[in-house]
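Form 7-S
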Amino acid sequence: MSRWERWQRDFHKKVKELEGSPFTDDDDEKQFFEIELGLRLRDHICPDAPYTEIWPLLSGYRFAGINARDDLFAMCMKARQRIRFLLTAAAWDREAERYMEISATYRLAWWKRTSTA
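Output:
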C-alpha cells in the first residue's frame, strides 16, 4: 500500500467520525478531496486563475508560462494520477460548484471563487 493510499484510508476514518459529515457516500468524499487536490495544485501553479482553469492542468499538456517547467509539469501529472472521478471539464465544474456548497468548516483549501467571465 502506497503512502497516498494509507493517508487516504486514515483520513477517511477520521472523516467518518465527524459529526454532521456533509458526505453522503464514499464517492462523494473522494470527489471532494479531488477538488481539494486540484485547488492546492492551483495555489502552487497559477494562484490567480479561476477554478475553471484548473482542469486543463490535468490534461497532460504543457502550457507556456504556466506548467512548462519540468517540476510544475510533474506536479500536474501526479495530481492527474490521483484525480480519478473528475475526468472531464464538466465533471470538474459540477463538483467545484458542489464543493462551494459545503460548509467552510469542512473545506481544507482556502480559495476565493473567481469569475470566469
